[in-house]
Amino acid sequence: MAYTDFTTDAVQQRLGVSLQLAELFPGVRSIPPPGWLTDQLAKTRQLALLSEKSRSEFIVAPVLLAVRDLTGDQLVILSGQRLDVDAAKGLTGECDFILATGLALPFLQAPLLTLIEAKRHDIESALGQCVAQMVGAQMFNERAGLADRAVFGCVTTGEAWQFLRLMDSIVSVHPDRLYLDNLGGILGAILFAVTRAQAVPTA
What pTM, to 2 d.p., does this model score? Predict the structure, then answer.
């Protein structure tokens, strides 16, 4: 078993997490997107982005780079990074993207957010995989002495973005998806997630 094999039922039964709806970004402001990102996404809309790979390259990666800019380049973006933490539990495999703190070293440090590109534009079918990767990231952090960190997750089609948060054994699912026509809201949500994940959670 690997991350890609998990469904929402499987993560609850095998990993012992529970899911709930909860507001993840209270009071978070929309961040004006940089001009280069707006221009690039405008050009992207002229293309037929049918595959996950094309959406990753032309939509998701530029959005994540913009968030890195907003952190003053204090965010590491890892693409295709393996997160092998517990083979017996099925917590192995590659992640589409991991956002992490630390230096840009050739190994993973302190994952804050895992992001999955939804296959066939089906966000629901990818939620279990995302939660499993969040549990893997949580275990990674615990072994590094960072047990107090929340871990965020996101499933995206490029157009739609569904955010989640793992604290202890509870996965909170943001009740509303964010869409690319609210690009500033997406930037604000990701920046809030990676900033909040580094702090001791209070809510």
Answer: 0.92
